[in-house]
Amino acid sequence: VKTGPSTGAQGGYITYTLSQIANTTSHPVNDFTFEDDLASGTYLQVLNTGVYNSNVKMSVYYRLYGSTDWIRWKSDLSTATNSTLNVSELSGQISAYFNDGASVHTPYVTAFMLSYGTVPAGFAATTAPSYSVLVTSQVPVGTSIKNNASLTGNYGGKNYSKASSVTTLIPLGNGVLVGPVKTGDDSSLLLYGILALILGALAVLLGVDIYRRRRKALVRAKLAGKTLD
Q1: Could you tell me the end-to-end alpha-carbon distance of the chain, in angstroms, rounded to an integer?
Q2: Which of 3, 111, 157, 168 is least surrounded by Cβ atoms within 10 Å, i.e. has the fewest?
Q3: Whose CA is closest to 137, among 65, 196, 189?
């Protein structure tokens, strides 16, 4: 159902493609839904709903960091055209959801759902949906993140589902702290310590290389009867 890169970088973006959202049966399917629970430490940035071979009305929902509630993002979207949804546009809607008088809330979206309702037999994407996530410093360098998704539907009173996952290695990082962090989380300090060790090792290697080059030059100059200042 979903494909993505094998590697990514802390502080960078990963784009996933939902390549097999389709009703492959010979009959309509009810409650046809795609749900994606993003990997811990990654947050949705942009979502493209895709284009399909049948025109049905779909709705998009999202879930916030630390919440279990689904919030309607868009409704009555036509599957005949692609809709590009930017998380950055959600601040006002999220402020209303919290209902605490604050004018702006940072939209850390950790899951989304595409709800198609009832789809006909053969319903399928002709332009695959896709989305991008930001990899924050909550994802330790050198570890992997696993993104889980599921496609579900109902026919004849029976529920059906198909699961998919993508694992991405995060070998690189920039030490930039992004996103909400729990109190007492010292992951950023660890990252900066690791980066300092790496930079120190590189400096030592560079010094050794310069020393060796200088020694070789001195030997050549001595053999030639010259001296180097």
Answers
A1: 67
A2: 157
A3: 189
- What are the distances in angstroms from CA 167 to CA 71, 146, 170? 27, 4, 10
pTM of the model: 0.71
pLDDT digits (tens, 9 = 90+) for 3-44: 888 888 888 899 999 888 999 999 999 999 999 999 988 999
Tokens for 10?
A: 């802390």
Strand order in the sheet with 109-119: 7-9, 158-172, 143-155, 29-37, 109-119, 57-64, 71-78
Nearest 5°: the CA angle 91, 97, 98 is 90
> What stretch of H or E contains 71?
strand 71-78
Asked whether 191 and 27 are in contact (CB, 8 A), the reply is no
In angstroms, the CA 150 to CA 4 distance is: 15
pLDDT per residue over 184-223, tens digit each? 344 444 454 555 566 566 666 676 677 677 777 776 766 7
- Measured between alpha carbons, how far is residue 226 from residues 5, 77, 216, 221, 229 in Å? 57, 81, 13, 5, 10
In angstroms, what is the C-alpha Rg of the chain? 25
